[in-house]
Specification:
The chain is mainly β. It contains 4 helices and 34 strands. Helices cover about 10% and strands about 40% of the residues.
Amino acid sequence: MREDNRSRQQGLTLVELLITIIIAGIVFAALVPVFVSAAQKSASDNARTVGLGVAQDKMERIRSLAYDDALLDNFNDGAFASNYGLGNHAAVSNGNGAKDYLVQYQLTYVYDPDSTAPEEPGYELYKKVTVDVYWAGNPSPVKHTLLRTAIYQQYAGPVIFNVTVGPRDAVIGSTTEGMIVPGSDGLVTITAYVETGVATREVRFTVAAGNGSYKKAFTQPAGVGGVYVWQWPALASGAPDGFFTITATAVSPGGYLGNTWNVTERLETGPALAPRNLTATAGNASVALSWEAPATGDIAYYEVWRWTTADRNQAMLIATNLKATSYPDPPQAALVNGQRYYYWVYAVDLVGNQSDAATKDAMPVHTVGDDSPPTPPSILTATVQAASVNLTWSASLDASGLARYEIFRSTDGTNYAYLTKTGSSSTAYSDLVGADSPQYYYKLRAVDASANANRSSFSGPVGPLKTAVSTDTLTVANDRTAANQPCTVTVQDTLTGLYYAQLGGVPSGTPGPVVSISSKGGSAQWQLPSGKSYTVTARYAKDGNIPIVQSAPPWTLSFK
């Protein structure tokens, strides 16, 4: 029994050891394919990760192209692809040389399913691009990396590169020089020029008066050689004189808008319209006139005429260069109670045309009752801002209540002219004189609400007050490279129509001063009051001095 126990404790027999070795070999042989497969999978995944980087790089390069350059021929091997880092091969270093990755592209045009336009390039809504990156040979299996993107144009519609407006008065020195003056048919021709080679469904035009009183739109579906024309019926549609913003926008067959081209033009159809809703309110030895501005957008000032009969030919001019839409008659002395007075109020436009008259009559009368004037107001503050003078005053007192305050202004402190009126509860007024104004003096008075319209004495004057000079520099360049092609340039305030010299100063109501700019890169500069818009007109003698018009700002312009 003891000998048997010792045999069992000595370990495995030779037979048992051989069996163990055989089993281990079988197991190892079974695991080898697993190890090989894992190694291959890891190499394939690494290669695919590299392929993703290649695909992303190609996609970013495609996104950076101009829309019209995003073409399948440009993606594939060739000069264009070489210049822009595209093509069908990408060599990537892997530490043991470089591995070649293959790149394939697909480009699909996506069209509007609701459009009747043909489904061909140029009519698409956008382009869809697919980039497929993979490799040939090991590691196996080969795996593909697919990336897709949609490419849109910045302006999905056709591009307008110019808009012209006419007929234009080209007579140098005339009061309407450079303005749009409709012909006998009352039409204004607006022409938009669209880049050819891009499909265009229509061009949309708008015209809008600068004072907001008029707006009209038109869609032109038919063009020839990229030229689209609208005959704007300015007279028939009641367009007022003044400044207009004219816009044109081209539309693709898919309904996408291109850029909007706009110009500012001044329309002159004749005399201004008459002031509206004139009223004449009689008081004690006085008449207060009030009216509404006409729809005309180029009113320069108003004139008031008066006489003791209805004979206009005998009337006397009692107020001119009046900016306000009201006038207290008389500003200083007194009218005769019981005498009927007749009034004619005219609007005068920026070229001096006088409108028809608005007429009214009234008889000043003294009513028994309140003859006590209001207490005079006192100007508390007079402050100067960049483009305005701001006044505040103490409120006046009157038993009948107040009707209004009347503000007067002077440039010399002696001769005052009526400026405007404010409501009875107002104790402040801002005079928008603009930058670099003349020096001004101010005073005001109160008018009560009694039938006699009693006027207080004037407040003490304040002044002189003057806004500071604030300017912007306008640079105008002549970019016409042909020899002996200088141009002449004028700069005009778009709102007032006044012309500016290069160094600023007081603007003029007549065209000029004219600045000559030599060709081949010549330029000139103007120092102009800030906060305004300007119409810049260039003329080339070799073009027959036909005006070429641009707007400022921007503060750098070029003409060709």
